[in-house]
Design a protein that fits this description.
Layout (H helix, E strand, L loop, with lengths): L3 H16 L4 H6 L15 H5 L12 H14 L3 E8 L5 E7 L2 H5 L1 H12 L7 H10 L2 E7 L7 H15 L3 H9 E6 L4 H14 L31 H14 L3 E8 L6 E3 L3 E4 L5 H20 L5 E3 L4 E2 L13 E8 L7 E4 L25 E4 L1 H21 L1 H17 L7 E4 L6 H13 L5 E2 L4 E3 L2 E3 L4 E4 L5 H8 L26 H5 L4 E3 L31 E4 L6 H12 L5 E3 L1 H6 L8 E4 L4 H6 L14 H13 L3 E4 L3 H8 L4 E3 L12 E9 L12 E7 L4 E3 L5 E6 L8 E3 L12 E8 L2 E6 L13 H8 L5
Helix pairs in contact: 4-8, 6-7, 8-13, 9-13, 12-13
The protein binds zinc ion.
């Protein structure tokens, strides 16, 4: 907007927009009030981006989007721009506060009023509560773009912010008066630029519309939306610390995209199972709100909207809100090929989605989409209108949202019948990094941690004074409880007696198991004095023998068919200061690997992904995987004394391609005969083995689609870890069907090949940066050939 020509163009465009038919939604909603004085100064998206969000084949990188939001905040007294910190790759991570100018001037007052509702213990009198309920505003957090290839989510916030800054309709004024909106235009700014650059580079080539050949979040890719309790990534931490924990939204909307051949838009209610510690009032709230948005969009003539489909509400990994007094609305618009339009005839829509059929009318899919062309404009329209409908509901139902928010906090503070009174977490004999990390997670989730001032007697055990205590009568007790207890995932089937119905994500999240920590539930009051809330210790990750200068030469295989497990492994290595080099296909194929490396780690990926990589649609050097040449080079590396460490599914690649004398007992076994979709198993270790050094004889394994082994030639194979022989003892948390299939089978073993070896993990020892209990198994494997 600094150039006068740009301003003139913007003015002309705005005038044209006002003269021509106004936005369809607004027209149907209400007549447009006369333009506010000065509203014409609000910069249009086109004036900064150079195109209208939704135009085919047009994307903006993060610096360009930031320029728009900054221009908007300069021009509008309804918008404030805040930089919350820097992303993983150093870009600004920002949020916009949007409300009426009067509300924005008194933001601090509204934060304090809302703070009191969030923690009912701070309400000293009935008058305090009434005042907060009467004068408070509904706080809404809208987050977008966490999954950067869902490109509508990178642009819809532009349209939403522009509408809220410029529109003068009664609906918008009601929103501005009654709602304080925090808008995070991208939860993953780095990915906006990664995807935009890749898209623009491949435009007009066979690779147009393809995924970039790298993770769109530096460490976690798509798993950045599985980090809402572990808080490993800086973007998660900034959002939780600066927005959730300060502003305590009643409503959180997260804007996404889904497959292109299902519904045009998914909205809650979610499918079962809903995680049982979520307050029922929040479930009722999200059910009502999702249906209300769907109704509003249907009134605008939008079709193909599914509710109560596809997405369940089990894991807290995507739902910080559910444990912090807010409803979480997931809005998932159908995708196209990034910004390129697609055509989907009706008879090519999926015949069956979870919970509905995209070709058939049902109670939760009332008006099927007829098929045809589907464009970025459609995507951003569904997303923007859904966000606007959320805000209208938040404004209209302000009283109920605030009252429900207070009720949820009140129930948590009083405590739920049938819940333990507290958890006791002793300091002694614990994994110190695990203990500090676990306590740090609870603390960041605003759980109060105290210490016992005297010894605690519990279940025939005595825990010394100083033990940590988490009392489950506090505002965010549900967050603590769900993370400290084992999960019992319900036995859900596609139809009675049929195969299992897969969870949307995984089924377990028990932190004490994952982090090697003891946490003991206390059914009743401990009868000892407790300290005031304490700060947990800081974890100091580091592993003997793996520091710079003393470590073996580690290579971490990095496929262009980007593997999230590779990213997580890189994150673990970086966090624990383990030196390594990334290893790409061309270097593997070129061979002579022993000259450069002592150890090669293959992160979790299927044999097909590892061998074949990306399709020939991709330009060099991205297409093709390890290939036959790479397999020969890996074999030579091992025979010449190298160590190959294969994680989870990559172990199947190693067994198949290097013809190792072990058999995967789960190869080709259908879900009916064995199923464990992300569960915590018991692992029995040979503590005398170098790979199990420093480990207890009993540990855990994060089981998720990996192999389980039988040894074919015991002269070449050493078993380091097994699942228990008793099938009843296999599962510690989550879900398993037919554990007898893996009972007694090997989970971790070492195979001698020539003068080197292959270490096979049948599980994920560094699962999403959470399974700290089993990191030593991975770290010890790296040191087998230390110089
Ligand atoms: Zn998504």
């Amino acid at each position: 907007m600094s150039r006068p020509t740009g301003a003139r163009v913007a003015l002309a465009l705005l005038a044209a927009a006002l003269l021509a038919a106004p936005l369809g939604a607004q027209q149907r909603r209400r007549s447009i009030a006369p333009a506010q004085r000065g509203a014409a100064r609000i910069p249009t998206p086109r004036s900064v981006l150079g195109f209208d969000p939704g135009d085919d084949r047009k994307l903006a990188d993060w610096p360009t989007l930031l320029r728009y939001y900054q221009a908007l905040a300069r021009a509008s007294d309804r918008v404030r721009y805040r930089e919350l910190g820097k992303t993983t790759l150093g870009a600004p991570f920002v949020a916009l506060a949007i409300s009426s100018p009067g509300n924005l001037r008194r933001l601090d007052l509204y934060r304090r009023l809302n703070d009191r509702l969030a923690d009912p213990r701070t309400l000293k009198t009935g008058r305090d509560a009434q005042e907060s309920l009467r004068d408070g505003k509904t706080v809404v957090l809208i987050t977008s773009g966490i999954h950067s290839r869902e490109v509508g989510g990178n642009l819809a916030p532009v349209l939403l912010a522009y509408r809220l800054a410029s529109d003068t309709s009664a609906a918008t004024r009601a929103i501005l008066d009654n709602v304080i909106l925090w808008l995070v235009p991208s939860l993953n700014p780095d990915g906006v630029t990664i995807v935009t650059r890749w898209y623009n580079r491949t435009l007009g080539t066979p690779a147009e519309g393809s995924d970039p050949p790298e993770l769109y979040h530096h460490y976690t890719g798509h798993d950045n939306n599985r980090d809402w309790y572990a808080f490993t990534q800086v973007e998660t931490r900034l959002t939780v610390d600066s927005l959730y924990n300060v502003w305590h939204p009643q409503i959180a909307l997260d804007i996404h995209q889904q497959e292109s051949d299902g519904s045009r838009l998914f909205l809650p209610p979610y499918l079962d199972p809903v995680e049982p510690n979520v307050d029922p009032l929040l479930v009722d709230g999200v059910n009502a709100l999702g249906a209300s948005i769907a109704w509003a969009l249907a009134q605008q003539g939008k079709t193909g909207i599914a509710i109560n489909a596809v997405y369940d509400a089990w894991t807290p990994a995507r739902a910080y809100q559910h444990y912090h007094g807010a409803v979480r609305v997931l809005a998932e618009a159908a995708g196209a090929d990034l910004a390129s339009p697609i055509d989907i005839p009706f008879d090519e829509l999926a015949t069956r989605g979870r919970g509905f059929n995209p070709r058939q009318r049902s109670w939760n899919f009332t008006n099927p989409w007829p098929g045809g062309r589907w464009t970025l404009r459609d995507i951003v329209s569904y997303q923007t209108e859904a966000a606007f409908a959320v805000l209208e509901d938040a404004a209209r139902e302000r009283d109920r949202w605030l009252a429900a928010f207070l009720a949820v906090g009140g129930r948590a503070v009083r405590g739920w019948k049938g819940w333990p009174y507290a958890y006791v977490i002793p300091r002694q004999r614990q994994d110190s990094v695990g203990l500090a990390t676990l306590l740090g997670i609870l603390h960041r989730g605003q759980v109060e941690i105290r210490t016992a001032l005297h010894p605690v007697a519990l279940g025939g055990q005595r825990y010394p004074a100083g033990s940590y205590v988490v009392v489950l009568r506090q505002p965010y007790a549900a967050f603590a409880k769900t993370l400290l207890e084992p999960q019992h995932y319900p036995d859900l089937r596609l139809y009675p007696g049929g195969p299992p119905q897969p969870p949307y994500d995984v089924t377990a999240h028990t932190l004490p198991l994952l982090m090697g920590v003891t946490a003991v539930p206390a059914p009743d009051s401990l009868r000892v004095s407790l300290s005031a809330p304490v700060e947990p210790p800081q974890p100091t990750p580091g592993y003997p023998g793996l520091r710079e200068g003393e470590a073996p030469r580690v290579a971490l295989y990095r496929s262009y068919d980007a593997s999230m497990d590779e990213g997580w492994t890189r994150w673990v290595f970086d966090t624990w200061h383990v030196p390594y080099q990334s290893l790409v296909d061309s270097v593997v194929r070129a061979g002579k690997l022993t000259e450069k490396f002592d150890v090669i780690v293959l992160p979790d990926a299927s044999p097909h992904e590892l061998l074949d990589g990306l399709s020939i649609r991709y330009p060099p050097p991205y297409s093709g995987g390890i290939g036959a040449d790479g397999v020969r080079a890996l074999r030579r590396f091992v025979e010449d004394g190298g160590t190959l460490v294969a994680l989870n599914d990559a172990s199947r690649f190693a067994v198949q391609q290097l013809l190792l004398p072990v058999r995967n007992v789960l190869e080709g076994v259908p879900d009916d005969d064995f199923y464990a979709p992300g569960s915590i198993f018991r692992l029995e270790l040979d503590a005398s083995d170098p790979i199990a050094r420093g480990m207890p004889a009993q540990s855990i394994a994060w089981f998720e689609g990996g192999p389980a082994f039988e040894v074919v030639d015991s002269s070449a194979v050493r078993v380091i870890g097994r699942y228990p022989a008793d099938p009843e003892r296999v599962l510690l948390s989550g879900w398993v069907l037919h554990p007898e299939r893996v009972a007694g089978k090997a989970a971790l073993l070492e195979v001698r090949v020539g003068s080197g070896r292959v270490v096979l993990f049948g599980f994920r020892p560094q699962y999403r940066g959470q399974s700290i209990a089993t990191y030593p198994l991975l770290f010890n494997s790296l040191q087998l050939t230390a110089r």
